[in-house]
Write a structure and sequence with these properties.
Layout (H helix, E strand, L loop, with lengths): L2 H10 L5 H6 L8 H18 L6 E7 L2 E6 L4 H14 L11 E5 L2 E5 L1 H5 L8
Antiparallel strand pairs: 1-2, 3-4
The structure holds zinc ion.
Zinc ion binds next to α5.
């Protein structure tokens, strides 16, 4: 994900782990809006429930969908994450349009038709 988008996420939501900030959010820009929505839901829940030690450990792309690891077991946050992961299989990882999960030579990736035909040549980090 582009550095400026990551920076905005890390500055807005203080509960990303040091490790995550160092390694970066390892997925395409198309999923920024999914992550943003997830972040706001988690933030609201954290404020209500007064959980203080929550961290997102890392975020990456895994077989076409989002993979998000956190440091606690919590049913509400887990459900928010499951919803975000399910959505990522419907949204193009590169551009954010409606997408479909493809298997390209064993590499799982969720793309729209345009990006499938004209894959953007750029690093996803
Ligand atoms: Zn696309």
């Amino acid at each position: 994900m582009d550095i400026n988008l990551q920076k905005h996420i890390f500055e807005t939501f203080p509960w990303y782990s040091k490790d995550c900030k160092e390694k970066g959010i390892l997925c395409g820009n198309g999923w920024y809006s999914i992550l943003n929505e997830l972040n706001f839901k988690i933030d609201e829940y954290l404020k209500k429930s007064k959980i203080k030690d929550f961290k997102i450990e890392n975020i990456s792309q895994f077989f076409g969908g989002l993979k998000i690891n956190i440091n606690i077991e919590n049913n509400v946050i887990n459900r928010y994450i499951e919803e975000a992961v399910a959505e990522s299989y419907l949204i193009c990882e590169y551009c954010g349009n409606n997408g479909y999960p493809y298997n390209i030579q064993g590499w799982g990736i969720t793309l729209c038709e345009d990006c499938l035909m004209n894959p953007p040549i750029k690093k996803i980090k």
